[in-house]
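May I ask you to comment on the folded chain given beneath this request?
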Amino acid sequence: MEPKPAAPLKHTSKSQKLAKLRRLVARFEPGVAHGPHIQTGFADIDAYLRQQVVPAGLPCGGLHEVVATRVGDMPAALGFAHRLAVRFLDRPHTQDMLLYGQTHMACREAGQPYGPALPAHGLSADRLVYIDGARLPDLLWAGEEALLCSAIGCIVLSSWDEAPSFTASRRLSLAARAAERPLVMALGAQAGGSASAATTRWQVEALPQQGWHVRLAKLRMSYTATPPPEGWRLYPQSLSQNSAQNILQSQPRGQAASRTARAG
């Protein structure tokens, strides 16, 4: 009796295995390609998003992390985070409120929201809810709870000294997707190497003449290609610079712009 011929070996490349795993994860992972999206207002970034994302843009229902490349780049990271928040709030027919929260260190280093700068980008003081100097766990809890409130149009949380755990970022990401509301988190340089479930993670470095070197370090689910490693060199200037970076300026504590929730 002749032996049966050996079955052909199955050669599965690494890329095929990764593609299979992505399809498997996609069955259980909430999609971010549905729901409202925004444009960043920067032509090069928006052109990239048009090629890679359907529908083109940043999803409103997601957690977007903005991380400083180095310690000294935190003001630039805050400026870019504020820019995204302004774009999220500038959607048509949106008059919702902005929840802005800072940890104790972020409050000491960056100051409080500066009331006179708010009208420059269409945000009046009565549309700002401010959490002054909270511990990071309390700040994350407040952000997650605020996502359940239909009056909140966007949430910005700032932490200079520590980053959320993967579990915490996962909770925020799922809550943001379920609510279809954006949560933008500005983080210090120590967060650059941490694991995160955020929809996007941006790394920002300061450039001369008030410029930003922005790299898209993390994309999740709805993208089909690795973002360009060289990133984008942005010079907001004029309206873009004023509307995004002037939200926060150091000022006496008695001039805080709006309703302030204090945490211990």
Observations:
- The chain has one domain: 57-262.
- The longest strand covers residues 211-219.
- The chain has seven helices and eleven strands.
- The first helix runs from residue 14 to 28.
